[in-house]
Every structure is written in structure tokens, then in C-alpha cells.
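hiii, so i know i said id send this last week but things got crazy w the move. better late than never?? heres the sequnce for the chain we talked about at the cafe, plus the structure i predicted for it. fair warning i was half asleep when i ran it
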Amino acid sequence: MDNFVSSIQTVPLNHYLILSSIIFTIGVIGVLIRRNAIIIFMSVELMLNAVNLLLTAFSAYYGDAAGQVFVFFIMALAAAEVAVGLAIIVMVYRNTSSVDINILNRLKW
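okay and structure toks below
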């Protein structure tokens, strides 16, 4: 266990911050620009993984396991989001034959 912590601490925390911010930015751009519902869900997952990386890096840097506990809960939340999100996407596809979110205006009353 000590080898793992020491190997994590050899990489500066700034590198984790930069990598996490790049991944999070890619996720935000994917949510804002793309119109495909599946890609939007993948972008949200990318943002959650960027936060998980940052929480794990801070947890290892400070030697506190609280960040890793938060990562566990975020992963459980992401799994539930995928299950519900994909069920919604399947139902939208059955009704509209498309996963384009602009077509969802047809579902209004």
C-alpha cells in the first residue's frame, strides 16, 4: 500500500488538476454542442469521471480516504443514471425513431 501512495505522490498534483480540467471541459463541450442523446450521456459520464479522478488525486495527496468514498458514491450514481438514461433514450427512439434531442419537441402536448 505504501508503494501505491508513494507512486501517486511522485506525480505532482498540478498534473492531475490539468488532466481533470481538460477531461471535464471536453465533457461540457460535448453536452453543449452535440444533439445526439447518447453522446450527451457519454459526455456527462466523462464529466463525472473527471471529478472522480480529481477526488482520488486529492485523497491520495492528503492521505485521507474521504475522497475515495465520494468516488464510490459517484460511481453508484453514474450507474443509476446510465440505467435510467438509456431506458429513456430507448423509449424516445421507439416513439420518434431518432435519438436527436431536437426532435423531442414533437413529444409536447
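btw The two ends are 58 Å apart (CA to CA). thought thatd interest u
miss u guys!!
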